[in-house]
Amino acid sequence: MDGGRALLGAYVAPRGEFGDRARREAVLAHERKIGRPLALVNEFFAFDKPWALDRLRWHLESGRALMISWNGAPAEAILSGELDPVIAERARWARDLDAPLILRFFWEPDAAKGERWGYHDDPGLYGRVWRHVRDIFTAEGADRVLWAWTPTTFHFSDGLAPRFYPGDDVVDLIGADGYLWVPCRGDQYRSASDEYGDFLDWARGRGKPLIVAEWGAGENPGGDTKSRFIGSMVEMVENEPEIVAVVAFDSPDPEGRGCDFEIDSSPGSLAAYRDFASSSVMGGTPERLAELVGSGD
Q1: What DSSP state is assigned to residue 152?
Q2: H/E/C letters for each residue in 7-69?
Q3: How far apart (Å, rounded) are the C-alpha atoms in residues 221 and 34?
Q4: Which of 94, 111, 174, 257 lies 20 to 30 angstroms, CA to CA, from 69?
Q5: How does pLDDT run across 207-232, given as a tens digit for each residue?
Q6: Could you read off the pLDDT of 158-210 as tens digits, one per residue?
Q7: HSE of 138 in the Cβ direction (CA atoms, 13 Å)?
Q8: Rounded CA gap, 232 and 194, in Å?
């Protein structure tokens, strides 16, 4: 695998309005800030809400690969078949996009989502739901979808996250979501390798490509922890050849927690992110997803 193997990706929250135009402009503004196009864009959709198919096609036509983060739903509603028509419709949408895409179904089951929908104390239930949904996608011919399993980094340290793993036969990409929570949850600095270390120890060598599915750092006024964390991400990706995509979470503080995850929250943070985006290891192209689909990895 060459040095430019990893796709540069991001979820870019719109600033101000949340309509389709604002979402497109936010992605274009992100690309202007970093001086290069994104290779991968992450879009979030609730389980029962339509996907923005015109915008997804616009991303593809603009040369960006897709990662769709599709939310979960209560297990009973899925396993009973009640939601099969919704699942089948989404499968046909994925099929008809006619491009490889990463589907991040029900991400972070070890965290609040798992608690909200009754999975948190029953990881096996999550696995049954995952297989039910994937079976429907297979039946509908959505065979260019790469299924990405992405819990939080936090619960690899206590052993909870691996309990939610659905199985090698139904997972194509293994990932995790990890953040530097300075200053909103304390002042302890951790590098990217520190934050992702337990996840990488577990995932490394499993024969699956790896992704950093969400990452970011809070802006620390008067400190350099954010720029240091961004710089450490380059080093981590360089040292982990199984990582095929790194997807930033470029957003103002989403829940009022005191952490600004915008890439340009300060001049120093933007400079560090621009260096990260231009690093040779982040030279992966969307064609890499087609290779993964074709290889059956």
Answers
A1: B
A2: EEEEEECCCCCCCHHHHHHHHHHHHHHHCCCCCEEEEEECCCCCCCHHHHHHHHHCCCEEEEE
A3: 22
A4: 257
A5: 999 999 999 999 998 899 999 999 99
A6: 999 999 999 999 999 999 999 999 998 888 999 999 999 999 999 998 999 99
A7: 8
A8: 10
